[in-house]
Design brief:
With 243 residues, the protein is mainly alpha-helical. The chain has helices at residues 5-17, 20-37, 42-78, 81-103, 113-128, 136-146, 152-163, 167-191, 202-225, 229-238.
């Protein structure tokens, strides 16, 4: 299956400018890492921030790989091209949901809050055992567990990774989301401060949400838009499944 660049771009934008969730959900973990770095030199503190965030993005990527592979297995068992196309269109619906979450952070567009909280209740004790994160393996391992912190936005994108029904595409979706969060989370991990507030401006968030929703709608409508010769080539280049 070709790489779906439209979904990857939407995931990157969601991570970059959907970042209210980053501070709210990940701020405590980032602050804990920052506390561990206070007695270190600025250079070592930055390396610690990079290691933990690399672990976090690796955690996202592994989760995407697993659920994307699981989705591919289900499609293979069903042996249905129609089901594959339906799952691909459902990715579009999930992207629209992601955009709505970005536009209305407190409006309740979180379908996975309860199961996510239950999962984290089991993982949190493991992470606490890694504190103080004063060695490179501990910093990476803490970040790896951090990647499984069940924030609503990451879980919603994880459902898109599952519906992609492709292990590589699922991993890339979550990796793109993780890379998008770096400009906010890296300074937050380093200093424990609420850094880069400009990323959270309402106008920037609205523009990003509009792009994500447009990506979702385009994904949903791709099978019909592909009937237009002038549009078909563009959709193919973006990796949209049209048949």
């Amino acid at each position: 299956m070709p790489i779906d660049w439209l979904s990857l771009g939407a995931a990157l934008i969601a991570g970059l400018l959907g970042g209210v969730h980053c501070v709210a959900m990940c701020g405590g973990v980032a602050a804990g890492i920052a506390v561990s770095a206070r007695s270190q030199t600025p250079g070592e503190a930055w390396r610690m921030a990079w290691r933990s965030n690399l672990g976090r993005i690796t955690g996202y990527t592994l989760a995407g790989l697993l659920v994307g592979g699981f989705g591919a297995g289900l499609i293979a068992l069903a042996r249905s091209d129609a089901l594959l196309l339906g799952a691909r269109m459902a990715v579009g619906a999930v992207l629209v949901l992601v955009g709505l979450r970005m536009l209305f952070p407190g409006a309740g567009f979180n379908l996975f809050a309860k199961p996510g909280a239950a999962l984290w209740a089991r993982l949190a004790p493991l992470q606490r055992r890694l504190l103080p994160a004063n060695t490179a393996p501990r910093q990476f391992a803490m970040g790896l567990l951090w990647g499984w912190l069940p924030c609503g936005l990451s879980l919603t994108l994880l459902s898109a990774a599952w519906l992609s029904a492709d292990a590589l595409q699922g991993a890339l979706i979550m990796a793109s989301f993780g890379l998008g969060t770096l400009p906010l989370m890296l300074p937050l991990t380093y200093s424990g401060a609420r850094a880069l507030r400009w990323l959270q401006r309402p106008d920037a968030r609205r523009a990003a949400a509009a792009l994500v929703i447009a990506s979702g709608l385009l994904t949903l409508a791709a099978p019909w838009l592909a009937q237009i010769p002038a549009v078909h080539g563009v959709l193919e280049a973006l990796g949209c499944r049209t048949v």
